[in-house]
Amino acid sequence: MAKHLKPSILFLLLLGVLSSNAQDIHFSQFYNHPLYLNPALTGVFSGDQRFTGIYRNQWADVPVPYLTFSAAYDEKWYVPGLKNGLLGWGLSFVRDQAGDGDLSWSFLQATIAYTQQLGDELYLSGGFLLAGGQRAFDPDQLFFGDQFNGDIFDPGLPTLDGFDRTAAGFMNLGGGVNLYYQSQRKRSLAYAGTAFANLNRPNLSFSDREEVELSVRGNVYAFGLVQVSEYWDIGFRGLWHFQGSYKEAVFGAVAKLHLNQDVGEELALQLGLGHRLDDAIISEFAVFYKNWRVTMSYDLNTSPFRVATNRRGGPELSLQHIITKVKPPDEFKSCPIF
Asked: What is the pTM of this model?
């Protein structure tokens, strides 16, 4: 009986926490999910089309781990008449599932951004997001105290611990700005910006008797790379994330080695180390090959929760592919073949 009751109690406690102060998901590789970090990053990359996927398996030693998956696509949209500017649009899907009752988030997000060139190496972007989705759980996987008949636990007994609904739909509005620097002579680049989501404070309650508003989520971040030699770059990352009473600070550094710089055969390796304050140490390894990037990171818990997780925060895997289209020449001249 204790085996069945313990996960259910944990789920109900988790449900109570989420009901009192609902929070969004987060990624350790926040820099590898640009559309979720800031809609102003839509279309801000070297290339024309970008595909991004990220998967997170958190707290494997907890009875039911937290699983998060996201896939995104964005591209540049060149509009005639826009001088030194362009539009970007994108779509992303996020799915998160946790707990004994499969408490889940699922939403589809659309983003649009405008980027204006301020100088030869500096760009300013502003973007907006519109998302729709739902939070849900499966009550059939839960067990309650009144299903104990006095002698044994009987999951077939009815329970009075009911819910008005098992799913809550929501719409989400947000926006942000981003400043992007790209050196013309070196590989050095940098991003800095801020973004806000849940500006409409959607209601996520499973009860008709109370409302549970999703607090506004804010991000302030900066990250980039600095070329220090022909083969080596060093990078920095920082994020300040806040939502209601929840605060999160992440910072880290990376070193990137370019093994092959021939056009069309580029190959580089990257190692990184980060720290989410009062929570986890984050290690990272990434491979860059041509227009592909694969990044693997792992969280090592340092918070008091490490007693339950055995310090195993969990792995996170991301994949990115960028397509660059060949632009036709401004003028076309036919050349006779002799």
From this structure: 0.82
